[in-house]
């Protein structure tokens, strides 16, 4: 029986940094590389926990900032914790709320031990720092808690970046000293923007503090794709091999494959659920707008050969109709399909690594997802983070 928090490295690709692993949590094991559906407000939009279980999700993400505001972490704690509150028996990772707080821009003020900010709901002044973020995640009872960090913007001058990384490291140490829920793991977050030396310093000092896993933050925040992937590589390079590595907020399929080639184990993003609400489907051959007029009489499934509930039972014409008349069922069915494709993509990736054919698989995916090369970046999708 593996110890909670242990990370077992199962196989490494011979030619890249890609690897398959297994992380043990209080709510089950997680095979990596893994994609975590985003359950911002204690729900993955349009999906039931039963759907997620049937789709094969092993871990989801909850958002501390949003749950802190509504319904309040006290309500969740009194209800028996986040798992019981939302009826999900798998693992949960909670972010610290730092990204949301810093995205408020002029509505926040940074202090030594946290950030004073205005609620996006009613404008009330609130404070969130390492102590408060860890207390909130302790009350939520997640399996993995993230440290409170400063997510710097892009672009960012080096002088500001140096100060920001020092703040992130100080707050990480404060988070590490805070008590946690029973069997709750804690991950540190590497920051440093586009500055390689800062990411190295941050990674080394976080490792010296000692965490159960490590994340790369401050990527996919509007920077060009080549700079983003370099930031991922810089963030991972100096992290321990025997701990899980998580790139936060990244969910473009091409970028995930490239990040896995650099040694990433975990991802999260709102893309599969958000684009479903706008009528877009993801398939093995790329994405397309189901809501387009071209599919008005199309009796084929959203993706031919797909085994998900949506594709087994309904046509493109029907899904298009539901989306265009704004019926909830259309969003739900397309979300089921998109999430199936994302989780299937990760299963295919794991299988390719285990079978020592990741290089061929990666090349094929690149030809589908980026036919014009690395710099053919979809700014609209990245902006959806």
Structure, briefly:
Helix content is 42%, strand content 19%. It has 385 residues and is α/β, with parallel strands linked by helices.
Structural notes for this entry:
Mean pLDDT is 95; it is low at 376-385. The chain has 2 domains: 7-269, Queuine tRNA-ribosyltransferase-like (TIM Barrel, Alpha-Beta Barrel); 276-354, no CATH class. The chain is built from 16 helices and 16 strands. It has 385 residues and is of the alpha/beta class. It is globular.
Break the fold down into its secondary structure elements and pairings.
Layout: E1 7-12, E2 19-25, E3 28-32, E4 34-39, H1 49-55, E5 59-63, H2 64-69, H3 73-78, H4 82-86, E6 91-95, H5 98-102, E7 108-111, E8 114-118, E9 125-128, H6 130-140, E10 144-146, H7 158-177, E11 185-190, H8 196-209, E12 213-216, H9 225-237, E13 245-247, H10 253-261, E14 266-269, H11 271-277, E15 280-283, E16 286-289, H12 309-313, H13 316-324, H14 328-354, H15 358-369, H16 379-382
Parallel strand pairs: 4-5, 4-14, 5-6, 6-10, 10-11, 11-12, 12-13, 13-14
Antiparallel strand pairs: 1-2, 2-3, 7-8, 8-9, 15-16
Helix pairs in contact: 6-7, 7-8, 8-9, 10-15, 11-14, 13-14, 14-15
Cα(first) to Cα(last) distance is: 37 Å
- For the record, the count of structural domains works out to 2
Oligomer: single chain
Per CATH, the class of the largest domain reads Alpha Beta
Going by CATH, the homologous superfamily of the largest domain would be Queuine tRNA-ribosyltransferase-like
**Secondary-structure class:** alpha/beta
What portion of the residues fall into strands of 2 or more residues? 15-25%
Strand order of the largest sheet: 4-5-6-10-11-12-13-14
CATH architecture of the largest domain: Alpha-Beta Barrel
Q: How is the CATH topology of the largest domain named?
A: TIM Barrel
Q: Look at the structure and give the mean pLDDT.
A: 95
Uncertain residue ranges:
376-385
What is the count of β-strands?
16
Specify Rg, calculated over alpha carbons.
20 Å
């Amino acid at each position: 029986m593996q110890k909670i928090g242990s990370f077992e490295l199962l196989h490494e690709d011979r030619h890249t940094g890609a690897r398959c692993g297994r992380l043990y949590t209080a709510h089950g094991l997680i095979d990596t590389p893994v994609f975590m559906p985003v359950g911002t407000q204690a729900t993955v939009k349009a999906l039931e926990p039963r759907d997620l279980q049937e789709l094969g999700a092993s871990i989801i993400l909850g958002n501390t900032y949003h749950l802190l505001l509504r319904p309040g972490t006290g309500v969740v704690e009194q209800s028996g914790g986040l798992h019981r509150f939302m009826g999900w028996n798998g693992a949960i990772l909670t972010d610290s709320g730092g990204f949301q707080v810093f995205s408020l821009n002029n509505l926040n003020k940074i202090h030594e031990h946290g950030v004073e900010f205005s609620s996006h709901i009613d404008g009330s002044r609130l404070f969130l720092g390492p102590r408060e973020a860890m207390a909130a995640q302790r009350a939520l009872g997640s399996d993995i808690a993230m440290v409170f960090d400063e997510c710097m913007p892009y672009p960012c001058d080096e002088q500001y970046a140096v100060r920001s990384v020092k703040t992130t490291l100080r707050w990480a140490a404060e988070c590490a000293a805070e008590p946690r829920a029973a069997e709750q793991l804690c991950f540190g977050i590497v920051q440093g923007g586009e500055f390689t030396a800062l990411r190295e310093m941050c990674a080394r000092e976080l490792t010296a503090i000692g965490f159960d896993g490590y994340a790369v933050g401050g990527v996919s925040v509007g920077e060009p794709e080549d700079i983003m992937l370099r930031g991922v590589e810089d963030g991972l390079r100096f992290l321990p091999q025997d701990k899980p590595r998580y790139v936060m907020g990244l969910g473009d399929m091409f970028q995930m494959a490239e990040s896995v080639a650099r040694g990433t184990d975990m991802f999260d993003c709102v893309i599969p659920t958000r684009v479903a609400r706008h009528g877009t489907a993801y398939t093995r051959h790329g994405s397309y707008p189901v809501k387009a007029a071209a599919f008005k009489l199309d009796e084929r499934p959203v993706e031919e050969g797909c085994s998900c509930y949506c594709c087994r039972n309904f046509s493109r014409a029907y899904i298009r109709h539901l989306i265009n008349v704004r019926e909830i069922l259309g969003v739900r069915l397309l979300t089921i399909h998109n999430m199936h494709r994302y989780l299937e993509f990760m299963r295919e990736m794991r299988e390719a690594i285990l079978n020592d054919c990741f290089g061929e698989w990666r090349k094929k995916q690149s030809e589908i997802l980026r036919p014009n090369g690395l710099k053919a970046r979809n700014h609209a999708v990245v902006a959806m983070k």
